[in-house]
Amino acid sequence: MLLRLAYLAVTDTFALLRLLPMSEGACVTCCEGTRRCFRTRTVPASLLAVLTFLQGCFTTPTFTTFSALVTGLIAQTGRGTVTGMLTGAGLTRTWSHDRAHAFFSRASWNPDLLGISLSHLIVRQLMSEGAVLTVAVDDTLFKRRGKNVFGAAWQHDGAATGPHGVGRGTCFVVLGLVVDLPFLARPVCLPVMARLWRPGQEVSKVDIAASMIRLLAACHHGRRIHVVADAAYHGKSLRDLPATCTFTTRLPASSVLFAPAPPRTGKRGRPALKGARLGTPAQLAATAGFAPVQVTCYQRTDTVYLAEVTCLWYGSFHTRTVRVILLRDDATDTGYDLALATTDLASSAAGLITRYAMRWFIEVTFAEARGLLGAGQAHNLTRAAVERTVPFGLYCYTITVAWYALHGHQPSDVTEHRERALVHHQDGPVAVRHGRQASPGDHRCPIYAHPPRSAHRAGNPHRPTGMGCRQRERRRVSPQACQNVESRVTGGLTKFVPDPATP
């Protein structure tokens, strides 16, 4: 129920932001350098106050275009294309479409610099002083068509519905800050950096993720950063992360673990870099001792069984000491259900499980950025435009949430909505409402939780004839009815009159 309330809160956030009034008659700078006043819908004052934090990433004319496109993407009710942004801002008859397309393909601005500015906005405005940063890293595929789209190719798609799990599009590695907001019962992941990854290039997804983590750590110097990622993110690129960063990932089943390096013997030769082979996570779980621990994940507190081993993951982190956390559910007797590897040697095992569970919220962000804002729907072809439009859409998600948190959140309204949403289906108001509904009859079809299924259409009695059936029942005509058919030709029309007694 809490997860449902969290989703409804985010959905209501975007719905309310689309209804906020917009200012009238703002002055903007045209491409030619002249200033003109447009009696049209422009940037709201509260949103402009948030965008002012990002003004240093653009020139003055480019910032005007940026503000209008952000407003248009938030306000649009159709597709999130470049022209759709102009439509949402009400500038289709005022600005040339080339001005909006030039912002992505030719204007001078850096998506990474814009993301770093967003991260400073989040840290200063939405987080407490000295708070530890929790960062989620993942990649997602934005489907694109056309052979001339830069970076588009057939590749793995985690959200694919088919049996093969592949799709054609552009893949972006995204880094987001996980933040607790007062109007949400769950954390929210706010994207602050995204880079395009192309299949076949020398740089891997892990290399791109490691580079973004180093840049974020350098821009937030001295602040503790905890990074969480799925099992795909492990490798040699993560060995040289800054000392202020910890990395937690899911341990692949095929990984091999070793004991820490033994002390030096004083003999000639290179000292040993690793100890005895401990084996795979399954072999480690066979001899490990599990203890019951209370763990809080996804707004729930459950009792699980954890085992902890300090060892070396030599293939990925080389000689850096890691901790392996093995989790076993209450219903599991042997083996393990989850294996985590982390470079954090100080946090508790239960805290590491809770931290890794926060990685899921970046998946929620991907779904909401696509569904609510239309991120990734722009039809760009050139390299610069493709590399900028998706980060722009993801950054608009972060800007919108920050806008609502700073200027639009009303605790009284949120409390009222939550009280109404917490009403259970068996409570009085809901029961009365269902009791007033008419019983299934000729005008209403009965609702079945699990309607009977059959391989043959005739074997399902609850499936109506017609109304979507590929083959409709044909009316049988008897020979006697055929003899009683009277054909009358009137003005070129033929009228068939069947026997009324024919069924």
Explain the overall architecture:
The longest helix has 26 residues, at 383-408. The strands form 4 sheets. Strands 3, 4, 5, 6, 7, 8, 11, 12, 13 and 14 form a 10-stranded mixed sheet that branches. The model is unreliable at 1-40, 428-477 and 485-503 (pLDDT under 50). Helix 2 (45-51) crosses helix 12 (383-408), helix 3 (60-75) crosses helix 4 (82-89) and helix 6 (111-125) packs parallel to helix 12. The chain has 15 helices and 16 strands. The protein is globular. By secondary structure, the chain is an alpha+beta fold. The chain is 34% helix and 22% strand. The two termini are 54 Å apart. 33% of the residues are buried.
Task: Give a brief rundown of this model.
With 503 residues, the protein is of the alpha+beta class. The protein has 15 helices and 16 strands.
Question: Helical content, roughly?
Answer: 25-40%
Question: What share of the residues does DSSP label as strand, in percent?
Answer: 15-25%
Major β-sheet, in short? 10 strands, mixed
The N- and C-terminal alpha carbons lie at a distance of: 54 Å
- Number of DSSP-assigned strands: 16
Mean pLDDT: 79
- Per DSSP, the total helix count is 15
**Radius of gyration of CA atoms, rounded to a whole number:** 30 Å
